[in-house]
Structure prediction request, 318 residues.
Amino acid sequence: MNLLALPCTLRKRGVIGMNQRNFELVGACNDRKAYPLVDNKLFTKRLAAKAGIPMPELLGELSRQFEVEKISERIGELDKFVIKPAQGSGGRGILVIHGRKDGHYLKSSGDVVTTAQLKRLLSNIISGLYSLGGRADSAIIESLVVASEMFAQISIGGVPDIRVVVFRGYPIMAMLRLGTLNSEGKANLHQGGIGVGLDLRTGTGLGAVQYNRRITHHPDSGVPLDGIHIPEWKSLLALACRCYDATNLGYLGCDIVIDAEAGPLLLEMNARPGLAIQLANDCGLAPRLHAVRTRVAFAPSVDERVAFALDALGGAVA
Prediction:
């Protein structure tokens, strides 16, 4: 049964809406004092380092306008890196550089970025153009993740990521997010990326959506999106569980990438994860939230929480 085709049945099928998310999950489960830990990517990196959670390497940060003029010296000979706002959201203000040519920088599409354009982006980031609430911000420079070879034909441009929603320390739903030409390679559904629902038991694909419409093939490459299987699935879910332990946020979105050499890496965390993951999975969150709420006792062990998710939360949950 397709959630997109039968909107009148959404409540019966356990689909939760924005108001319910805001009041019963974000508001009730997340202490606002902990928001800066995930809203600011610099804070997230420091927290993750302390907790032993692997992330892409931090190569530099800029928080003052005068630092922008010396960016060429800061970057040096780096030819692969990512620039992003520390307090950005929705993929805005992120620049992914894959190489250099004739003194300029290159995106994955081959488009050229001049040093002047790079400085303008950094200046805009620091001034708060992309930050939550328009606050003054810092620009982060981090290492470029090299996507696992399995993603070469199913994602355009940037590195795909896996969004795992964690409730009270238990992973309850997941989707793979793929880049497209429309999203400029970013794995962001709001910008035209693709969401592939993932079976929580196995890490295999359940179906895909783009612009809230169900699709079967990648719109740019034509590659079928069925048969996707995420490697190191249990390790990936365990990493998401550890994010709860580090933040104590009861409703949390963990964005994880799979590096070709380093394996699963935490990209960022979100204290207000969106609800499109339900469309990608063709399944509502409510039954899975209920399954965790009615569990007799909280399992202190990450392995126990992963085991519960694999056993009780995959497929259709009554």
